[in-house]
Amino acid sequence: MKQLIIIPIILLLLTGQAYAVNSNYADQWKKGISFYQQKQYDSAVAYFEQIAELKPYNAVVYYNLGNAYYRLNKTGPAILNYERALRIEPDNKTVKDNLLVAQARISNKIQAGGEIFFINWWRILTKPGNANLLAILALVLFTILTVLITFKRVSKPGSYKVPIQVNVFLTFLFICILIIAYCSAANGLDNTSAVIMEKDAPLMNADLKGKPILLVPEGTIVHIKSEKGSWAEISLPDGRSGWLLHTELQKIQ
């Protein structure tokens, strides 16, 4: 596993927030770091969780919390917190690497089913980390269109030489990128993804009776389709569906 990030300046570089030096959280942060360094991971988790409960929107907090849970061999909580860190910083390679290490611990891992190539392309295009870049690209295209239209209006007749097809193409491209940016941003707000927190969680049929369809391994990421009382209908990575108790899983957001 990667080493714990403990230097406040690194926190500033990673998140742009003066979080570690915030007087409201400094004591918990220092104690959590100290206990982690002493390999007292239960105590470290307790202090990191106190900070996380305040919803600081800080990837480093969830990253270190994931590390502490990993050291305690708690795969579900470790993956949950790495995923939360990635929701904040989708391109953080350190978190991604640690997530892969934690996922390697999942026994009887349920593999994702094969998907049509264009569905994979769409998921890549609309992943949450692309929203800002796509929005900037859309703004650039809009600016170019505005300049071209303005130039056409103020230029003398016959001097405007940019083909109308260029404007049409740029307008079409602008609309497409705007739609993709919107979908990317919406995916970043997704609250249907959850992580299985218990070992061998029993997946039930719709009637919630009889033997389980299968036992879902701890750490598996699922999507919640609907909820009914204390039960949640979920879909597995391979496309299969069933019902789990809410106590067996936890939403990433």
- Annotated CATH topology of the largest domain: Serine Threonine Protein Phosphatase 5, Tetratricopeptide repeat
What is the CATH superfamily of the largest domain?
Answer: Tetratricopeptide repeat domain
Beginning-to-end CA distance, first to last residue: 24 Å
- What portion of residues is helical? 40-55%
The sequence of SSEs as H and E is HHHHHHHHHEEEEEEE
Number of helices: 9
Strand order of the largest sheet: 6-5-4-1-7
Number of strands: 7
Tell me the radius of gyration.
Answer: 23 Å
Morphology: extended
Strand content: 5-15%
Assembly annotation? single chain
Per CATH, the architecture of the largest domain is Alpha Horseshoe
User: Which CATH class of the largest domain applies here?
Assistant: Mainly Alpha
How many domains?
3
Q: Sketch the major β-sheet.
A: 5 strands, antiparallel
How would you state the average pLDDT, rounded?
A: 83
Q: Helix/strand/pairing class, anyone?
A: alpha+beta
Provide the low-confidence segments as ranges: 2-21
Task: Describe what this molecule looks like in 3D.
- By secondary structure, this protein is α+β, with helices and mostly antiparallel strands.
- It folds into three domains: 8-103, Tetratricopeptide repeat domain (Serine Threonine Protein Phosphatase 5, Tetratricopeptide repeat), CATH 1.25.40; 117-188; 193-251, SH3 Domains (SH3 type barrels, Roll), CATH 2.30.30.40.
- The protein has nine helices and seven strands, in the order H-H-H-H-H-H-H-H-H-E-E-E-E-E-E-E.
- It has a five-stranded antiparallel sheet. A two-stranded antiparallel ribbon has the order 2-3.
- Helix 4 runs antiparallel to helix 5 (75-88).
- The longest helix is centred in the last third of the chain and has 25 residues, at 164-188.
- The relative contact order is 0.10.
- Mean pLDDT is 83; it is low at 2-21.
